[in-house]
Write a structure and sequence with these properties.
The structure is a single chain. With 201 residues, this protein is an alpha+beta fold. It has one domain: 3-Layer(aba) Sandwich (Aminopeptidase), CATH 3.40.630. 24% of the residues lie in helices and 30% in strands. The chain contains 5 helices and 7 strands. It has a 7-stranded mixed sheet, sandwiched between helices. Strand 4, helix 4 and strand 5 form a beta-alpha-beta unit.
Length: 201
């Protein structure tokens, strides 16, 4: 099954072989609205591959971001997988967020992205997204898909600046609260992909 087929199903397939977001789809719907750092905002964020040592902090961020967070077992299953980019965001050695992208052949899906409450609003979500897109590009992925709440204008604006365009809709995809999801796609083979910019999100 291709990554696009997973993204096109009623619920995204999770790392445990089930609907990871059965009640609370989280594909780019974390409590942190990804954005650019505001004017004068100083950040020391960096991204790197997640390790088992990071899981306690990752699970804490999950619990603070989603009503049905992924389990420790789910994240453990992602570590070291050849078709998964599981990254953490950190600042001064402290884990500040995490992102997950998985792919099959030329298509990929951003499956999880969250920033810890204490680090939100400083561009960490945007940095994680950029790092996941870079990982997809290096592996020859041609298209990346994600879903976002229709009302999340800030996130949709960020994705548009990265080159994502709306390609569909899932009625009542989100349940807490109920809301449609907008499916967005990025063609990494075209010139529409924009570089990171300092425009406040």
């Amino acid at each position: 099954m291709s990554a696009r087929a997973r993204a096109g199903s009623e619920r995204p397939e999770g790392p445990e072989g089930r609907a990871a977001a059965k009640h609370d789809p989280r594909v780019l719907a974390a409590a942190d609205t990804p954005g650019e750092p505001g004017p004068g905002t100083e950040t020391e964020f960096a991204t790197r591959p997640a390790t088992r040592h990071d899981l306690p902090a990752v699970l804490a961020t999950e619990g603070n971001s989603f009503s049905t967070p992924w389990s420790r077992r789910a994240f453990e299953a992602l570590l070291g997988r050849e078709t998964v980019s599981f990254l953490v965001l950190e600042e001064k050695g402290e884990v500040a967020g995490h992102g997950v992208l998985w792919w099959v052949g030329p298509e990929a899906e951003v499956a999880n992205l969250a920033v810890a409450p204490a680090f939100r609003g400083r561009g960490g979500g945007a940095l994680l997204l950029d790092a996941l897109l870079a990982a997809a590009s290096v592996r020859g992925v041609g298209k990346v898909f994600l879903e976002v709440r229709e009302s999340n204008d800030a996130a949709r604006s960020l994705y548009a600046r990265r080159g994502f365009v709306p390609v569909g809709r899932r009625p009542q995809y989100y349940r807490m609260p109920p809301e449609d999801a907008v499916i967005m796609a990025l063609d990494l083979t075209s010139d529409q992909v924009s570089d990171s910019d300092p425009t406040p999100g």
